[in-house]
Predict the structure.
Amino acid sequence: MKKIAKFLTLGVAMLAFSTATFGQVSATALTSATIVSGLTITNTGPLDFGTIVTGTAGTVTIAPDGTRTSTGTAVSTSNVGRAATFDVTGTAGLTYSIAISPASLTITHATLAGNTMTVNNFQSNPAAGNNGELDVNGEQTISVGGVLTVGAAQVPGNYTNTSELTETINYN
């Protein structure tokens, strides 16, 4: 009986000096991720200033909507030019930013490399900045226009760019 009393006393002492424990509760959370199609961009048409008559200095402007205007230089109505177009595709509703580079580029005569013209003041629709958004089909077309400076005695011929006009898109 002495042994039982010792164990009982020891048990009571252990309980008296032990820390109290409380019941635990917990909750769970789901973990998820959504994978969407990446953005792609494809050039579907060049920036074309159309046919220009030599003899007078001036500028020719192609607006993002494709309209052409000129100051100081004569333009032909047989080829009125067009804005460059870029098709963007991806997941519907994605937004992105638009950047055009370089700020200015040179176009050079096809066979007489010393003859050049400058293209600058690029504008796009949607406008450069954080303005792109894919429609419900996951598509959008960006149109780009600019201003061509023509010299007074510009040598006749075809002129093309020596550096690329680049449309860059970035996820927002």
Observations:
- DSSP finds one helix and 13 strands in the chain.
- The CA atoms of residues 106 and 118 lie 5 Å apart.
- The mean pLDDT is 88.
- The radius of gyration is 35 Å.
